[in-house]
Amino acid sequence: MKKLSLIVVFFVIGLLRLALAEIPPHPEYNADMISTNKKGKIVSEGKIYIGKAAGKLDMTMGKNRQIQFFRFDSSKITHCMPENQSCMEMTMDFNAFMNQDWKGWNENCSGEETIDGHPCKVCQIEGKFLGKTRKSTIWKAQDLMGTVVKTLDEKGNKMELKNVAQGPQPDELFIPPAEYRKIGLPGDMGKALKGLFQ
Fold first, then answer.
1. What is this structure's pTM?
2. How large is the C-alpha radius of gyration of the chain?
3. N or C: which end of the chain has fewer CB within 10 A?
4. Would you put residue 130 in left (φ > 0), alpha (ψ -120 to 50) or beta?
5. Which strands, in side-by-side order, build the sheet including 132-141?
6. Are strands 158-166 and 29-36 parallel, antiparallel or unpaired?
7. What is the C-alpha separation between 159 and 97, in angstroms, rounded?
8. pLDDT tens digits for 44-91?
9. CB neighbours of 190 closer than 8 A, spacing ≥ 6?
């Protein structure tokens, strides 16, 4: 698995986490998603799509493109690699792109700021990730039911959603390509990543 896949996986884990008991109210939208490092250099960019019961993340880092498909009404995440037309499936106990409190994290919202035209609450969060305490700042858009449109971690890495376009998203966006072959996660990395999602 290439570097981008790990970045995407960790972003998915680090964003809004919740149990999949039911699908909470949330906006349907698509947006540009850009991740930068502490020096402001773009490390990945692409699109995010959120529908009624599914999400899709289509990201590129350098020449490497990765696509993630999520079902909000199940526990599956499908990770696809267009360069070799393959996909692998994992299970998860959270949903990364919905309007919910951070599961198991402390959150303190004490400020307000407008981000890309969206009035936001600015919140400090702290919690355990991979056995270590992590701290981040998140911006929750009040006109998007609290959707996080920006994150900034303690190392200066940043993720932003831009050009958010609200509205119904086509169902076909959230179906992995039928012609892609299914593969398993490779070796020890597969065991490690499965452990993160289960």
1. 0.79
2. 16
3. C
4. left
5. 106-115, 118-129, 132-141, 147-153, 158-166, 29-36, 42-50, 54-61, 64-71, 76-81, 86-91, 181-182
6. antiparallel
7. 13
8. 999 999 998 888 999 998 888 989 898 777 767 888 989 889 998 877
9. 184
